[in-house]
From TrEMBL:
Skewed-composition ranges (Gly residues): 137-154
Keyword terms of this UniProt record: Exonuclease, Hydrolase, Nuclease
GO biological process: nuclear-transcribed mRNA poly(A) tail shortening; priRNA 3'-end processing; siRNA 3'-end processing
One MF annotation (Gene Ontology) recorded for this entry: 3'-5'-RNA exonuclease activity
Protein name according to UniProt: Pre-piRNA 3'-exonuclease trimmer
PANTHER family: POLY A -SPECIFIC RIBONUCLEASE/TARGET OF EGR1, MEMBER 1, POLY(A)-SPECIFIC RIBONUCLEASE PNLDC1
Annotated region (Disordered), positions in chain: 137-156
Any single Gene Ontology cellular-component annotation: endoplasmic reticulum
Keyword Metal-binding: no
Gene3D superfamilies: Ribonuclease H-like superfamily/Ribonuclease H
Length: 422
């Protein structure tokens, strides 16, 4: 596991990008600042897919991703039938610059959940990776004007403190615009100011990339999402509908208003593999080894985004091996599978996203909604004049499984259950 912050993101980005490029499968997971904006917006077994999308859009729009987990599973070149897992934990927080001053909500129960699993709030607030939405910009923050600098001749220099990225950029822009006989460059937490000749100044302006470097730094993590969309590697997540919706909302475009799921847009991000843990044993299952940086995952179950992304990918590879052997009738025919065979075995669930507690059990990103396999709703009515007590009905039936009750008069209600076996 590697924690990615603003202190090491630029340094590690080339290797992250390389591992994404080489990956057979990528696991993802997110930690949120909240998941429900109103107590009235609850999932229900009565929800159709458009209704669920509308509810979840309202639920998550005010929140942000505090930590994003990505694990790249790369086929080993040294060991047969083995994949090397490269987990990353990205600490994320929107930056503030000029007119761009993002606002997001926090939910007490979500913060309590993060605290329970030792989430580093200081690292998130003080060292997080920037994540401007692609395509936004603050314009040119520099003012106009000119001036002169007294002192020694060309070649002399001095430094000015600039403790953060914003100040470093703004200070350089302002100094360059006001004083034509100097040039600036970033040196750690300082701005180095050097007196130059007019000719040297013109040459430096031709090759200047200050604006591009600043935008690249502020875009930050958005480059990861952009690269995932470009490479279109198979992704897997556990109950990842909220993850995908918030990723789309924060890094691609605001979620469309309405009750229709923008599946085509979400599909541009990933190839949507979903998985559930199975217990069947099959010979020659692929082995997964962690990098040295993530060795602690071998000893502990760390509930953080990188670990959850690792577990989602691990289970997916093992399940793919099971599916690839489902028609094999004898043990003698069991063998290690190639990466292509494993991914092909998952084709029936490609672009399926698990849906919790709804009329359908998954969302299809590249086709129509699946036909509901839930039991038909029950009509419940009281005898005589006694009004229906919904709380009493829920308490009575919930001991047998998931149940939702929707009253439509004082004496009648509809009952939805999760499955046929109670």
């Amino acid at each position: 596991m590697v924690d990615i912050t603003n202190e090491n993101f630029e340094q590690l980005w080339p290797s992250i990008k390389e591992n994404i490029d080489k990956a057979v499968l990528i696991g993802i997971d997110s930690e949120f600042s909240g998941i429900r904006s109103s107590s009235k917006l609850k999932n229900s077994l009565f929800d159709s897919m458009p209704e669920r999308y509308a509810i979840q859009r309202q639920n998550i729009s005010p929140f942000t991703i505090t930590q994003f987990g990505l694990t790249a599973f790369v086929r080993s070149t040294e060991r047969v039938n083995t994949y090397v897992a490269h987990p990353y934990n990205f600490y994320l927080c929107p930056p503030s610059f000029g007119r761009l001053d993002a606002r997001f909500s926090c939910q007490a129960s979500s913060l309590q959940f993060l605290r329970r699993y030792r989430f580093d709030f200081n690292k998130d607030a003080c060292s997080s990776v920037s994540r401007w939405l692609s395509g936004t910009g603050a314009g040119d923050p520099g003012g106009s004007g000119s001036g002169t600098v007294s002192g020694s001749g060309p070649g002399s220099s001095w430094s000015v403190d600039a403790p953060d990225t914003n100040l470093c950029y703004l200070l350089q822009k302002e100094l360059r615009q006001r004083f034509r006989e100097i040039w600036t460059s970033a040196q750690g937490n300082n701005v180095l100011v050097t007196r130059v000749t007019p000719g040297t100044r013109r040459d430096l302006e031709v090759t200047d990339d200050l604006d591009e470097q600043f935008v690249s730094t502020m875009v930050g993590f958005s480059r990861v999402i952009r690269h995932l969309r470009t490479r279109r590697k198979p992704l897997v997540g556990h109950n990842c509908m909220l993850d995908l919706m918030l990723i789309h909302h924060l890094f691609i475009a605001p979620l469309p208003v309405g009750d229709q799921v923008n599946g085509a847009s979400l599909n541009k991000l990933h190839q949507g593999l979903t998985s559930h843990i199975g217990s069947t044993v099959v010979l020659h299952a692929p082995a997964v080894v962690l990098t040295d940086q993530a060795a602690r995952y071998n000893e502990e179950s760390a509930h953080e985004a990188g670990y959850d992304a690792y577990m989602a990918g691990f289970c997916c590879l093992r399940l793919a091996h099971l599916l690839a052997h489902k028609d094999v009738t004898t043990v003698d025919l069991h063998r290690p599978m190639s990466s292509r065979e494993l991914m092909s075995a998952l084709t029936p669930v490609k672009n399926h996203v698990n849906v919790i507690r709804g009329t359908v059990n998954h969302l299809s990103l590249d086709g129509p909604d699946p036909v509901s396999e839930r039991p038909r709703w029950f009509h419940l009515a009281t005898k005589g004049e006694r009004p229906l007590d919904v709380t009493e009905v829920v308490q009575l039936l919930s001991q047998y499984g998931a149940v939702d009750v929707r009253p439509f008069s004082s004496h009648q209600a509809l009952v939805a259950v999760g499955n046929f076996r109670w």
